[in-house]
Amino acid sequence: MRSAHRSSRGRRRTVLAATGLVAALALTATACNGSDDDKAGGRAGASQAAGDDGKVHIPDDIKDKLKKHGVDVDKWQNGGWKNWDKDKWLSEAKDFVNPVIQGLWKPERMKSAKEANKTLSTKDAAADQGVSDPEPQPVKAVAEKTPYHRNAAPVGKVFFDSPEGAMVCSGTVIKDVNHPGKSNLVWTAGHCVHAGKEGGWYRNIAFVPSYNDLGKPESELANATTSEVAPYGTWWADWASTSNEWIQGGSESGGSGAPYDYAVLHVKPESGAKSLEETVGAALDVDFSAPSATEVSTMGAWGYPAAPPFNGLKMFKCLDRPGRLSLSSSLPTMYRIGCTMTGGSSGGGWFRVVNGRTALVSNTSIGPTNNTWLAGPQLGPEAQALYESMSKTYGGR
Question: How are beta strands 114-115 and 165-174 bridged, if at all?
Fold first, then answer.
């Protein structure tokens, strides 16, 4: 159990572990393939979503799926996706569709996206104190060093459209065990791709690695070009998977789906031919061993917090010794760390050092309304099965 007051010796161990975590992540991020020109652009080649006439074409399998649900393909491309009629809001795991609408995610639209936060009341957060460790002390979020592609290259922003408008989360480029060196997989939260039990799949889901790479302030981004805001390009999810538990039990405050609030995206570039991992130059392993909180000295959470006092334009991180959060005796415990990051950081990866290398071990799922801590799911056999299914079925696309 985690004490609210650590000894000086305990603090020293945590600081050393945190230093190792930061160094390992930076080392991973700079183990890049390709030239700086490749990393900065990622835009060479013809669009995979475009035909010989230069127009965007929706693949036949997606056309058929849309038609099956009574959705007019041409109208969808021209704004029909804004119709959130419950009868046409595709919700089942097999129903995911996300055709590319080229140029939709322009810099100004990215900046206007709102945070997709899941918050708990004090009462909810204290649901099972018999298992939960004491609430952690707040850890102030620290800005990541720029340029991001040299210090935290796998981290980026996930954009999507919901009935409330353009929304934003965070995500991480992860390795694909079946396609080494050529991964197109991104890890994020389930609530960043699917509304849970009251809704369905979100739309126009896209990933932008190293968003605002130089960490420019809002005043300098007023007339920013796409390459300044999205140096590696925009990557559209052509498939997404989240847990059945999130689809069936997820809610505005996390609900019974919170301990299973994770998702994997398979993405393709809006333009360009290289894989995401080749373009970014880095990807992280996922640790599915689900270690107990007592076995881990330090976890770090990275993301782009967008709710005040943050504005979503810069990457931040928090490092802390994890504790346990139990929402119910019938649900798995979650990891919890002190952190002042707000909504928008949802879906951002949590990392720990395994055998000297940084690995993703969780993702931001829920937090309290006063933004003093974050909680994320343990990634065990269920999460590993979802990942392996994505890799085998869609990884080679």
Answer: parallel
Output the pLDDT for position 58.
62
Q: How far apart are the first and last CA of the chain?
A: 45
Tell me how many degrees the CA angle 245-331-363 measures, rounded to the nearest 5. 65
- Average pLDDT in the chain: 83
> Contact at 8 Å (CB) between 309 and 316?
no
The H helix count followed by the E strand count for the chain is: 11, 18
Report how far Cα 162 is from the mean position of its chain's Cα atoms: 16
Are 333 and 348 in contact, with CB atoms under 8 Å apart? Answer: no
Q: Which residues pair with 240 in a beta bridge?
A: 265
Closest by alpha carbon to 341, among 218, 170, 211? Answer: 170
In contact, 171 and 331? CB cutoff 8 Å: no
Dump the DSSP string for 121-188. -HHHHTTTTTTSPPPPPP---EEPPSSHHHH-TTEEEEEEEETTEEEEEEEEEE--TTSTT---EEEE
Distance, CA of 307 to chain centre: 16
Q: CA–CA separation, 134 vs 126, rounded Å?
A: 9
What's phi and psi for 7, nearest 5 deg? -70, 165
State residue 124's pLDDT score. 53
Query: Which residues in the chain come in under a pLDDT of 50?
Result: 1-20, 27-56, 121-122
- In this structure, the strands spanning 119-120 and 185-188 are unpaired
CA angle 140, 288, 251 (to 5 degrees): 65
Contacts from 81-88 at CB under 8 Å and sequence distance 24+? Answer: 81/161, 81/203, 81/204, 82/161, 84/163
pLDDT of residue 35: 34
User: CA 15 to CA 33: how far, in whole Å?
Assistant: 31
What pLDDT is recorded for position 57?
55
Residue carrying structure tokens 């990891």: 335
Distance in angstroms (rounded) separating the CA atoms of residues 272 and 130: 52
> In b/e form, how buried is each residue of 234-268, taking b as 16+ CB within 10 angstroms?
bbbbbbbbbbebbbebbbeebbbbbbbbbbbbbbb
